[in-house]
Amino acid sequence: MLSLSAKNNLKSIFSNLIWVCIAGYFVYHIVIGGRGVISWTILSREADDLESELTKVKKENDFLNNKIKGMRSDSLDLDLLEEQAERVLGFCYPEDTVVLLPQDV
Fold it and tell me: What is the per-residue pLDDT across 50-100, written as a single tens digit (0 to 9) for each?
């Protein structure tokens, strides 16, 4: 039979073990959980990457909008029209030098 002090000692150890487990559970979820520090760091990096991609797409959108604006009949840009004719229709002037590259390059 265990003495009273040994029972109190085991009770104290068991109580402390439960508190350590509870604290460990919360620490685990604070650090590794779905809304923990590690997840927050990963999401922050992804947000930064998406912000830079958004900036790049906005610049491309502005560039294309300017090209579209230059092709409208009320503000026709002749240089842009000539460039499109060369690219789409294969148009070129007789004095132009044409260099054909293989499709693999």
Answer: 999 999 999 999 999 988 887 777 777 788 888 888 888 887 888 888 888
Please report, as a single letter, which amino acid is at residue 75: S
Which 8-state DSSP code applies to residue 95? T
What is the C-alpha radius of gyration for the chain, rounded to an integer number of angstroms? 35
Helices vs strands, H then E, count in the chain: 3, 0
pTM for this predicted structure:
0.52
d(CA 40, CA 36): 6
3-state secondary structure of 85: helix
